[in-house]
Write a structure and sequence with these properties.
single chain, alpha+beta, Zincin-like, three-stranded mixed sheet, 3 helices, 19% strand, binds zinc ion
């Protein structure tokens, strides 16, 4: 079982290590993911034209709460943090294709060794 407290501490730690602490504070919780995926980074739209995306929480599928594969949950956290990074720059990052900004960010932290400690 991986606690919300642990994930929140990991978020702060990775934020310092791979984003120079620039990611905003977000709430992390277990719940029901709207897209039936294992995790989702939620945003609300803001700004004068409601075109700015402001990250505010990461929701993990509540079924993961009891998983024995804790490294999977932490890998998901890193994945969602890349979405938070892009959302925080005001960009929508729904695409996961190899040419997407999302993939570029995932590759950047992969190259920096973010996933190595999970192996
Ligand atoms: Zn994603």
């Amino acid at each position: 079982m991986i606690s919300v407290k642990y994930l929140q501490a990991a978020y702060d730690d990775y934020n310092r290590k791979y984003w120079q602490g620039k990611l905003p504070k977000v709430t992390i919780r277990y719940g029901k993911c709207i897209t039936s995926s294992d995790a989702v980074a939620e945003t609300f739209s803001g700004g004068p034209l409601k075109k700015k995306y402001i990250p505010y929480e990461i929701v993990f599928n509540r079924e993961l709460k009891e998983t024995k594969f804790e490294c999977y949950t932490v890998a998901l956290l890193l994945h969602e943090m890349c979405h938070v990074f892009l959302h925080n720059t005001g960009r929508v990052s729904l695409s996961h294709s190899r040419k997407s900004k999302f993939h570029k960010e995932l590759k950047r932290i992969y190259d920096a060794g973010a996933f190595l400690e999970l192996l």
